[in-house]
Design a protein that fits this description.
Elements: E1 5-17, H1 27-39, E2 50-62, E3 66-70, H2 77-84, E4 92-97, E5 101-104, H3 117-127, H4 132-146, H5 161-173, E6 179-183, H6 191-206, E7 210-214, H7 218-224, E8 227-232, E9 235-241, H8 242-253, E10 270-278, E11 287-289, E12 295-307, E13 310-317, E14 322-327, E15 337-347, E16 356-365, E17 372-384, H9 390-393, H10 414-421
Parallel strand pairs: 3-7, 3-8, 5-6, 6-7, 11-17
Antiparallel strand pairs: 1-2, 1-4, 8-9, 10-12, 12-15, 13-14, 13-16, 16-17
Helix pairs in contact: 3-4, 3-5, 4-5
């Protein structure tokens, strides 16, 4: 391992037992299991079912690199960071870490709900490896960054999730780590705090810190990271420049469930099996010009009759900002039921979004605003305009009506004004 390498991973793997069941929390649980074992002695028992959450991972990360860890749900991203942070022990292989490690993997990890924010700052700081004197020295800066000074002596069980993450991130960041691991935690904070964290992470980068960043927000990955490691079913399938990795992710994520939606395994009521985002020229190019109409063509399969479906097609900017929604309810398009296979087509009004990258999602509820049955990513596309960028013009741009009356008109002589107006 050379001196410029911060993290070296060789043949790293983590195996878990599927459906292992809850851990014993009482003497009764232990006795019940022992009794079951005696009663079933000699009987054929089901084989233990294992799966690899992470398998044969190999990579090196240099000091000062910002690396994004991307992948669909269940790809092994969080498992990788937990192994690197020594929370879990790998089943195979090894990971060698050089430098002081700070990790923020779950909101509130290391916090005790009955303790105050002040007490938890010292507790969490000690867990991360800071001395009490070091926490005291940085305490004011930690509280200031977290923006919770008025609540620092309040038990954290009364904190909102946003307050939790602000304090936890602030403590981890002020550890001055050589390596910082972040797992989707910034999604909890508001957009202003997310920007603040991004700027702080960049300041750590300038100091030479190494940052591993897990997120479903591809805008954050693109902004933060020059390199991505793409995991698929526990294996590293890509390791290289960010743009190429994000293209692979976008292609693989089409028709996948939205990351915030969890299907009921007992009922796969409806699934969208094909999707295309079509320009006015009839081509699924992934590029839409500002002012064009978009046609979304969707094939679906309903495994049972769905009464009075409420369908929402939403468009989000890459940074998760919701920009617009189309729905059969708002658009007065009555659908009595869905059954079997079919095709749904939605054509928008002229899209006045500014130039940026967008994600389209489809969601289906039953009986109006009833149970959510499906939520899938149906496409990614870029809105193109030579000058109307989102950084300068915001989310949408439509031309306004402009009129100008020079102040000098008031000084025009009456006879001349009449002549001019005639």
């Amino acid at each position: 391992m050379t001196e410029d390498i911060a993290i070296s991973v060789r043949n790293l793997g983590k195996r878990y037992r599927r459906n292992a069941g809850p851990k014993h929390n009482s003497l009764r649980d232990v006795l019940q299991e022992k009794l079951t074992t005696l009663l079933t002695l000699g009987l054929k028992r089901p084989k233990k079912d294992y799966f690899w959450a992470l398998s044969d991972a190999n990579f090196d990360i240099k000091k000062g690199e910002n690396v994004g860890i991307i992948g669909l749900n269940g790809a092994g991203k969080s498992t990788l960071l937990k192994v690197l942070s020594r929370i879990v022990t790998p089943t195979t292989g090894e990971a060698r870490i050089t430098g002081r490690l700070g990790a923020l993997l779950e909101v509130g990890t290391g916090f005790h709900p009955e303790l105050t924010g002040r007490e938890n700052t010292y507790l969490y700081g000690s867990i991360l490896g800071m001395t009490r004197a070091e926490v005291t020295e940085k305490f004011d800066a930690i509280v200031e960054f977290a923006e919770i000074r008025d609540f620092i002596d309040t038990p954290v069980k009364r904190y909102s999730s946003g307050m939790y993450v602000r304090l936890a991130f602030s403590v981890a960041a002020h550890l001055d780590p050589d390596i910082l691991l972040l797992d989707e935690v910034l999604a909890v904070g508001d957009s202003a705090f997310q920007r603040k964290c991004m700027n702080f992470a960049r300041s750590l980068e300038k100091k030479g810190s190494t940052i591993l960043f897990v997120s479903h927000n591809m805008f954050s990955i693109k902004t933060m990271c020059q390199r991505v490691i793409y995991l698929k079913k526990g294996k590293v399938v890509y390791d290289g420049p960010t743009n190429e990795g994000l293209k692979m992710y976008e292609n693989d994520s089409r028709l996948k469930d939205a990351y915030w939606f969890h299907r009921d395994d007992q009922e796969q009521a409806i699934t969208f099996t094909e999707a295309s985002v079509v320009s006015p020229g009839g081509v699924d190019t992934g590029v839409i010009d500002h002012g064009d109409r978009i046609t979304f063509k969707l094939r679906y399969k309903a495994n049972r009759r769905i009464e009075k479906p409420y369908i929402r097609l939403s468009i989000d900017r890459e940074d998760d900002l919701h920009t617009m929604t189309f729905s059969n309810g708002a658009d007065k398009f009555d659908i009595p039921y869905l059954e079997g296979e079919g095709e749904l087509t939605v054509t928008t009004a002229p899209i006045m979004l500014t130039s940026d990258f967008f994600i389209a999602n489809i969601a289906v509820r039953e009986n109006g605003h009833g149970k959510l049955l499906a939520a899938q990513i149906i496409g990614h596309f870029h809105v193109r305009h030579h000058s109307l960028s989102s950084t300068a013009y915001g989310v949408v741009h439509q031309p306004g009506e402009w009129r100008l009356r020079p102040a000098s008109d008031a000084a025009i002589p009456q006879d001349r004004a009449t002549a001019v107006g005639s």
